[in-house]
Amino acid sequence: MSKITGMDYLYLSAYLRAKEASLLTRERLERMAAASDFREAAGLLTECGYPELDGASDAEIEAAFAARRASLMDDMEKLCPEKALVDAFRLRWDYHNAKVLVKAEGASVSGEGLLSECGRVSAGKLTEAYNQDDWRAVPSRLAEAIREARRTLARTSNPQLTDMELDKAYFAELLALTGTLSTDFYTRYARMCVDMANLRAVVRCLRGKMDEGVLRAALIDGGDVPTSAIARHAYGEGVQAVFTARALREAAELGQAAVEGSPLAAFERACDNALTRFLDEAKRVAFGPEIAVAYIAALEGEIVAARMVLLGKRGGLSPEALRERLRESYV
Fold it and tell me: Which residue in 169, 138, 151, 165 sits closest to 106, CA to CA?
């Protein structure tokens, strides 16, 4: 088989560049936030290809977002030259579903309504494998991660520990997948996601005055900032001394402020903005896998932002409060 190159992405790149025009821009998000009510905000969202959501329930809103994500995944399955690139994005939803199943079992409830159909394994097949303890239809790394999380929950009754284990398994498999691609762009993005997850863990532990052992258990390998350095210095020199890279600097400074008592909102926004800024590198590429990675990540960011605004409007949040929560957008 010949090696995949950027030329193989010519059609997909042109297709996604055209679709970028329908992504939610920062300006449109601000208009949604400033809208007088839920109905007006939902109407603005239809301009981006969403169905009419006036009068929609929370479940119907979630279904609309799920449908938009699923539609993109279906397109990518047909058009992307590298299956591993699509699988790397679907992977997130496999592990989301794993968390739902394990925690639902622990709480003796049904998690069916929280499952996603965007994973590599359908929600139905994963649920069947889980209930029957028959993992032949499930990728081996995912199956082992779920079994281990299930054992941990049975042993400790602590769902937080199972989340930590599944997060570590997710990022390990993600980095393995992205390492097979024709570009290192996705791997570098994934490594930055690990750094941000670890930065959040440091801030959460320091702010909550948790034991250093809790932080060590939460840290994820694979980022550009070694976990050994984080664990060694976070409780002494503080957040800024550990996360010193330019891309992480603003988030680290705001993280230190949050540890000292400032609200978390600015810190969380800075973490998300740093990841969005990383994706800007794809804007300088004429064609290639970078455009596909950036577009899928941008759509995920759009869904998070649109959900926040719509549910905020329904909950009575002021335009000012919503604007404070808005992240930077890719377009």
Answer: 151
Reduced to 3 states (helix: H, G, I; strand: E, B; else coil), residue 284 is helix
Q: Give pLDDT tens digits for 194-247.
A: 999 999 999 999 999 998 999 999 999 999 999 999 988 889 888 888 998 889
Hey, what long-range contacts does 113-122 have (CB within 8 A, 24 or more apart)? 113/59, 116/66, 117/66, 117/70, 117/93, 118/66, 118/69, 118/70, 118/73, 118/90, 118/93, 119/90, 119/91, 119/92, 119/93, 119/94, 120/87, 120/90, 120/91, 120/94, 121/94, 121/97
| CA-based nearest residue to 326, from 11, 1, 46, 27 | 27
| Whole-structure pTM value | 0.93
CA distance 89 to 47: 26
For 241, phi then psi, to 5°, come to -75, -20
